[in-house]
Amino acid sequence: MKKLSKASLILLAVLVLASIFTGCAKTAPAATTEPAAEAAAPAATEAPAAPAETAKKTIAIITPAHDNPFFKTVADYGTKVATDLGYEVVVMVHDDDPALQAEHFDTAISLGVAAIICDNAGADATIAPVQKALDAGIPTFLVDREINQSGVAKAQIVANNLQGAQAVAEEFVLQMGETGMYLELLGRETDTNAGVRSKGFHDVIDQYADMTLLEAQTANWSQTEAQTVVDTLIQKYGADIKGVICGNDTMAMGAMAALKNAGMGDVIVCGFDGSNDVRDSILAGEIKATGLQQIAYITQLAIEQADKFIKTGEAPAEEKQLVDCLLINAANAANLDNFVYTAK
Hints:
Layout: H1 6-45, E1 58-63, H2 69-84, E2 88-93, H3 98-111, E3 115-118, H4 127-135, E4 140-143, E5 155-159, H5 161-176, E6 180-186, H6 192-205, E7 211-218, H7 223-237, E8 241-246, H8 249-261, E9 268-270, H9 276-283, E10 290-292, H10 295-312, E11 320-323, E12 326-328, E13 336-337, E14 340-341
Helix pairs in contact: 2-10, 3-4, 5-6, 7-8
């Protein structure tokens, strides 16, 4: 094999190096295109995806027993309004038992509801459950009955019981001819409304010297209990009873049943709530009057205020809100249906 000269070796080395550099130059574009492709990939994944369907939020409605149509209206009408606004609804009944009410609040908290609407089981006993819900980030909107503390519920929306009771008492005195002996049936002692209504009655009746209270007894808002109480008082006072004024409509219905059974259907009876049962009794010429608590409207306000708070975090401007009552008697009873008054 022939040896290459020094000059030839140098020339060969130059040619090899040139070949190497040329090869590198040809492969360089491939090296730069891969990172470019990788950089473009994230841009494709960052395009906004179609929004997933939002799960419906739930509102809990907690009330006394639904055998009283007033409380059933809170549950039924509240469910309708909340459903129309796009919420799921869970309804629970506490039967005016504070312990059961506390269990229902615990259930609502465990379910992670968005808000609680409550017609409560006691002005004092309800404070702790409402506070517990607040601590869990769940707002409570109270209807119908107040509690004895401000700042824990987002709203306390109630009928103007004092104004309404005074209106009923004026009609009662008128129907009694400003004279006569009467009975008073009181609501549950733990319910603030019972005391407020009784005060409203006496603000008016006590101005008339010839109106005499024979006896006042609680019937705990119950129709059955009211009938039993009045049965007993009829045995005690008999024909001296000229009137019975009642803290709610269910007690008025019980009182009227007892009076009719005793052949005393002409005794003046007035109630308070504005139920269809009492409306029908008024139209039949039996019970003389009631005070309409606009509970359907009150419930609607509570649901709408809860909806606004859920969506915006904005609480009502006033926690305690009063809605005036309407006097219902023979002249306008036909305009009443399911606690809704429609002027005609």
